[in-house]
Amino acid sequence: MPDVKRERCELIAESLAAINDYMQNIHSANDFIHLRQGRLYLDAITLRLQVIGENVKQIETVYPGFFAAALGYNIDDIIRFRDFVSHHYERLDYQIIYDTCVSDLSLFAEKISRFLNEK
Prior knowledge:
119 residues; 6 helices; mainly alpha; 0% strand
């Protein structure tokens, strides 16, 4: 039987790595609107954040408390963000996307990586 948690965590790790790659070209929130490719990076990053949120939500639905117990990480904001992106994309603020990428993703990526390397 496949390990659903592991498979979904691998998808999360893949999206986190992609975001990290995209962010190499973004040095401020304004780059999303001023760089020639900025809007494409913004859209790609936002889609990857949505993928992360969806996978987190699916894991938490099947295995309630997994992220808190296994990773020591509160995922409520990730799920709320996913829901907002899914239903109100047109109201997204590029500054929030930038701040999320710069401030919030490295710790989560570290915890996901540690989980994947333990197995």
